[in-house]
Amino acid sequence: MKKYNVLVVDDDKEIRDAIEIYLKNENLKVYKAKDGIDALEVLNEKDIHVILMDIMMPRMDGMKATFKIREDKNIPIIILSAKSEDTDKILGLNMGADDYITKPFNPLELVARVKSQLRRYTSLGNYNKNNDEIKVGGLTLNKKTKTIFVDNEEVRLTFTEYKIMELLMENKGRVFSIEEIYEKVWNEPYYNCENTVSVHIRRIREKIEVNPKNPEYLKVVWGIGYKVEK
After folding, report:
1. Please, what is the end-to-end C-alpha distance for the chain in angstroms?
2. Rounded CA gap, 50 and 211, in Å?
3. Which of the pair, 2 or 162, is modelled with greater confidence?
4. What is the spatial distance between Cα 38 and Cα 68, in angstroms, rounded to a whole number?
5. So what's the pLDDT on residue 108?
6. Cys-Cys link to 137, which of 51, 97, 159, 230 (CB 3.0-4.6 A)?
7. Residue 136 phi/psi, 5° resolution?
């Protein structure tokens, strides 16, 4: 059985060591970094499958590190922060994070979130036998390469953004509620996660639409949810 690697980025050694204990109990290999710069160095050397990223750190904080990572990697990133305000959560998601956990956290919840991200990330490999492309107007989604093109130009999406588009494009014209999108993409029960889904939808539109305020593909059905159609 393949052993998956988790990178824990936090300037507090006690927190890093505690998280390592929880994750090792789940047979996960843990790498640790004390700030964003160290994290980038680890990513250049190791094959990492999930990142747990603190926000407030010296040298390079979690927001800047997340933004930097998203320039060329779609590894799932879970933000860890003592800040619980919605604005901080939304900022983290806007920078490219996939999930958000507030300190102090429940170890069982932390482990569950990590395993959820791993299931979603590694499940992409299940499509390797299906080379079919999904096309909706000028959008093309390639299941084998996990890429999306707009008018033959590749658009770089995060892991979560890709999964949202895969769900909607595979079901062209079908309207999915925010709750359905969250439960199918995040693979966990929906609970007050409207902002999480909305932020990801907005980011996708900014990448695939000529005019995000008047979307051509990713459309809202007011009071119901979202769909992809041309």
Report:
1. 42
2. 33
3. 162
4. 13
5. 92
6. 230
7. -135, 105
| Domains of the chain, earliest start first | 5-124 (3.40.50.2300), 128-228 (1.10.10.10)
- How much of the chain is helix, strand and coil, in % rounded to 5? 40, 20, 40
Counting every residue, how long is the chain? 230
Q: Could you identify the residue written with the tokens 């959560």? A: 89
Report the C-alpha gap between 157 and 166 in whole angstroms.
11
Distances (CA, A) of 163 to 20, 24, 57: 28, 28, 30
Q: What are phi and psi of 173, to 5 degrees?
A: 90, -15
- Cα of 3 vs its chain's centroid, Å: 20
Residue 76 and residue 114: Cα distance in Å, rounded?
Answer: 9
Single-letter amino acid code for the residue at 40: L
Burial class (CB in 10 A: 0-12, 13-18, 19+), 53: buried
**pLDDT, tens digit, for every residue of 82-105?**
776 667 777 778 778 888 888 888
- Give the CA diameter of the chain: 52
Beta bridge partners of 100: 79
